[in-house]
Amino acid sequence: MGRRVRKAVFPVGGMGTRFLPATKALPKEMLPVVDKPLIQYAVEEAIAAGIEEFIFVTGRGKTAIEDHFDHSFELQSMLEERGKQDMLEIATSMMPRAGTIAYTRQQEPLGLGHAVWCARNLVGDEPFAVLLADDLIQARTPCLKQMVDAQARQGGNMIAAMDVPAAHTDRYGIISPGFQHGNLIEVTALVEKPKPDQAPSNRAIIGRYILQPEVFEVLERQGPGAGNEIQLTDSMAALIGRQPFFAIAFEGRRFDCGDKLGFLQATIAFGLAHREIGDGLKTHLGELAATL
């Protein structure tokens, strides 16, 4: 139903203040989980979902992200001279094909909705995905792939959702659910960061979206919302009733890597699943637990 999702937007303009001083000179999206930066996990998830064009909405101090997805001729030459072909393949494997990656600048930190709006001319008049690198998802089938497949059947807009403790609803955009069919949930309303006693459910939006281009028209005239920022949740809410709108209760485990504890939990989970270090890490954790 409708056009295939070919483009993905990665809002990467945030300052990462919760990880200072580590993020004073390093973009938070470049923080590594085991051996890959957060942004690479997001790009790889997009590639697995069939995304062909990658749009980064950056800010000041984010050139390391651009460099990461580019050639490093000195490094590549050194690895080739030393015959380290396996390392050379790793160093070049994260680079999308030439001409498939673009960057635009969010010149003011006015919120997620504003960051998405900054990509409007690069997205054009077609459906697109949005991925927040802070939300790292460990899943057998990548989360965005689950969403793209479901959206191809349902059409319209789709967001990823998960249940959160009722006391935490004021940290998320929250769904007012309608009918549910399998893991798809009709979205009848969206509320940004409601207080627990005002939340319509405890089903929260997490950082994966498939949106129709009409959202840009809403963002164009939208004023500030919660936190005095232009909220993507508010613009999505305006599309409900005009277009199909569903949430998917995705299969997988989400880690909030914008939070120190969530970042450490992700590092352990992905470390345990890593073919080179998983067994050694499991042994170490067992020994460490025995001393506590």
Structural write-up:
Strand 2 and strand 3 form a beta hairpin. This protein is an alpha/beta fold. The model has no long low-confidence stretch (mean pLDDT 89). It folds into 2 domains: 252 residues, Spore Coat Polysaccharide Biosynthesis Protein SpsA, Chain A, CATH 3.90.550.10; 34 residues, no CATH class. It is 33% helix and 24% strand. The N and C termini lie far apart (55 Å).
Features:
Spore Coat Polysaccharide Biosynthesis Protein SpsA, Chain A; globular; 292 residues; 9-stranded mixed sheet; 33% helix; alpha/beta; 11 helices
Residue share in β-strands = 15-25%
Global morphology = globular
Mean pLDDT: 89
By CATH, the superfamily of the largest domain comes out as Spore Coat Polysaccharide Biosynthesis Protein SpsA, Chain A
Instruction: Compute the number of structural domains.
Output: 2
- Strand arrangement, major sheet: 5-4-1-6-11-8-12-10-9
How many distinct beta strands?
Answer: 13
Structural class: alpha/beta
Enzyme class: transferase
GO molecular function: UTP:glucose-1-phosphate uridylyltransferase activity
Family: Belongs to the UDPGP type 2 family.
EC number: 2.7.7.9
